[in-house]
Amino acid sequence: MLDRTQGCMVGGAVGDALGYPVEFAAWPQIQWKYGVSGIRSYQLDRRGLAPISDDTQMSLFTAAGILLGMTRKYMRGIMGRIDTYCQWSYLDWLHTQEWSSRHEEERIDSWLMDVPELYARRAPGNTCLSALRAIEKDKPVENDSCGCGGVMRTAPMALLSYIHDYSNGDPDYCDMCAAEAARITHKHPLGFLPSAVLNRILMRIMAGKAGDGEQLAAVVEDCVTALAGIKSQTDEDKTYGECWPNHVAKLQSIIRKALELAYSDKPDVVAIESLGGGWTGHEALAIAIYSAVKHRHSFEDAIISAVNHSGDSDSTGAICGNIIGCLLGRQAIPSKFTDKLELVDVIEEMAHDLWTGCIISEYDRRETEEKKLWYWKYCKHRREPQPERRR
Ligand SMILES: [Mg+2]
Question: Is residue 282 within 8 Å of residue 158, measured between CB atoms?
Answer without folding.
Answer: no
